Amino acid sequence: MPKAQREEVIYNCHIHTFTIDNVPDNYIPKALTKPMQVKWLRKIIVKALSIVDPLNKRDFFERYAQFMDISSNNKQSNIFKIVQAYYPPETKFVVMPMDMTQMGSGKVPQDIDAQHKELAKLTKAAKGAIIPFAAIDPRRANLNTVLNNLITGKGYDGVKFAGFKLYPPLGYKPGNKELEPVFEFANEHSLPITAHCSRGGVRHSDFKKKDANKFSDPHNYVKVLEKYPKMRLCLAHFGGEEEWRKYLEHPSKGDNWLYRIRQMMLAHKNLYADISYSIFSYEDNAPILKVLLQDKTIRERVLFGSDYYMAEKEKYAEKRLSITLRAMLDEDLFWQISNVNPKKFLGIK
C-alpha cells in the first residue's frame, strides 16, 4: 500500500494484561507467589534475579525477573502502560484475558467476570487504544447470556467486547458440542475468535503434554471453519515456535502444525494466524515468515501480535523485536500484517 494512502496505525493483535490475581494459587510456586505480591519483597527478588549473571545482559534470570515483576502488578492498567510505551502512540492493542478458573490448579483470587470488568474500565480509559476480547470457557453456566452481555456491553459500562479468546488445553475440545454455541454465536454476529494453537502454554492440571496437544491441534477446526463461514478464526502462534523449528529440520511436514495451518488457510477464507510468541525465536523464524508471506493468500491472513507479556522470558525485548521485524520485512509486508490484515480480521472498515 503506498505510504500516502496508509493509515499509520499498528495493530498488535495479541497481548495480555491479566495479573497474578487471575492465576490459580497453585500454578506458580507459593514460595514465590506470596512474596511477589508484596511490593518491597518483589523488588528484592527481582533485583536478586537480575544480577545472578551481571555480565550477560537479558539472561534467563533477568528475563524471568521481568516476567514475574510484570505479572505481579495488581492492576491491568499498570501492565498496559508498560507495553503501550514500547510502541508508537497511535498503536492499538487486542487484549486477551485468560480464564483459568477451571484448570484444576486451585482457586483464582479474581474470577473472569471481575477480570472482564476491569478490562472494560481500562478500555474506556484508554480512549481507543484497546480492542478487548473476552475469554470464553464453554463450561460456564448461562453461556449464551454471557456471550450476549459481552458484545452488547451490558454490565460492562457499555463497553462492547470485539471478539472471543479460546484456550482449549484448559479442558475443552474445539470439535466437541460444548463449543458449538460459541461458534454459532460468533457466526451469527460475524465476530472474530482467537484460539490458542501451540504445543506450549498452560494446560489443565490433569493433562500431560500429549493430552493438551490433542485439544490444541489445528485439525480440530477444519469442520468448524466449514460449518461457520461468517466467523473469522485466528489460530494464535501459527502452531508455536516448536513447530516452526521442526518445519526447518524435518522433511516430512504432514504432521507439522505450521504446515497444517498454512494448508488450511489456503482452503478456508475465514482462517487467520497470528505470529505471537513464535516470532521471538527471531533468528530462526523471521526468515520463514518472510518466505511464507510471498504467497498472496497467506500474506493476507497473517496477523502481527507479540503475546506480551508472556514473551518477556525470551531473549528479544518487545520493542527490539517489533522494530527488527519491521525493518526485516520491509514496510509493505509489515503494514500488511500489522494494519491491513488486522482490520479485516477485526471487522474494522
Question: Would you kindly provide a written description of the structure presented here, covering whatever features stand out?
Answer:
The protein has 349 residues and is α/β, with parallel strands linked by helices. The chain has a single domain, classed as Metal-dependent hydrolases (TIM Barrel, Alpha-Beta Barrel), CATH 3.20.20.140. The protein is 43% helix and 11% strand. Strands 1-2-3-4-5-6-7-8 form an eight-stranded parallel beta sheet, with helices on both faces. Helix 2 runs antiparallel to helix 3. The longest helix is centred in the last third of the chain and has 16 residues. It is globular. The two termini are 16 Å apart. About 3% of the residues have low confidence.
Q: In brief, what are we looking at here?
A:
The chain is an alpha/beta fold. The protein has helices at residues 30-36, 39-50, 60-71, 76-84, 112-126, 143-152, 180-188, 209-216, 222-227, 241-249, 257-267, 282-292, 296-299, 318-329, 331-346; strands at 11-15, 92-95, 130-135, 163-166, 192-198, 232-239, 271-274, 302-303.
